[in-house]
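Here is an idea for our session: we take a single protein and study its fold together. Which protein we use is up to you, so please pick one and set it down. Once you have written the record down, we can walk along the chain together:
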Amino acid sequence: MTFSIEGKIALITGGASGIGLRYAKALLRNGLRGVTLADANTDFGNQALKEIEKEFGANKAVFVHTDVRIKESFEEAFKKTIEVFKNLDILINNAGILNDAVWEKEIAINVNGVIYGVLLGLENYIPKYKTGDEGVIVNISSIAGIIEFSTIPIYTGTKFAVLGMSKAWGDIEHYNRTKVRVLTMCPGVTDTPLISEMSGRNLGAPYQQILESQITALPSQKPESVASAMVKIIKNAKSGTAWVAEADEDPYEFLLTPRESFKPQ
């Protein structure tokens, strides 16, 4: 059964700019009742609210200054969502950085932030406050979460972690007890600052040389294409599944091959 976005409430981390803001606008265009933009950048947050009000009218969005590395800060975004909108149906764990030069921070945001989001959303807020029978959590991995990228090994590791956690939390046993689907989105190279400003955000000169040869070989896409893919998987994807959005094309499911299939015959 297709999940209806109409009348639902969403919380999006990293939602004040880039793909995160595109997710918010795409959901609002599909009838979303309201959205919380949880982001560490207040200037971007205020500008995003102006853009949303201009296109969709008043009282459609709130901004909450949020550091996803700190559980208490992250939970304030959930609390504010319930205070303003009374409900929460969709969580998109989108906040992330690509910077192996500060890998401790990268791990804290990309891995710990997703863990906090799922623990808060799956185990508390969405089951309690969802509008209808079902809620949805989408964790953002990357094509770097399904294939190794030698130029950014630590970022790659964080995105592999997101994929693994999402598939585990998306298992039918968790869905049956929470009625919350957990999905993974794996965007390809997208025209955002995450990619355009990644030069030098690595472990040094040898990694930079690899970057210059790797990144040019990959197809790029508009952020709006990823937002369109997000709407499609929220509506239709089965819990535990992972989806690739690449080259401005429709999303397709990424399947893990059963390990037993590699055994010698």
In short: The first strand starts at residue 9 and ends at 13. The longest helix spans residues 103-129. The mean pLDDT is 94.
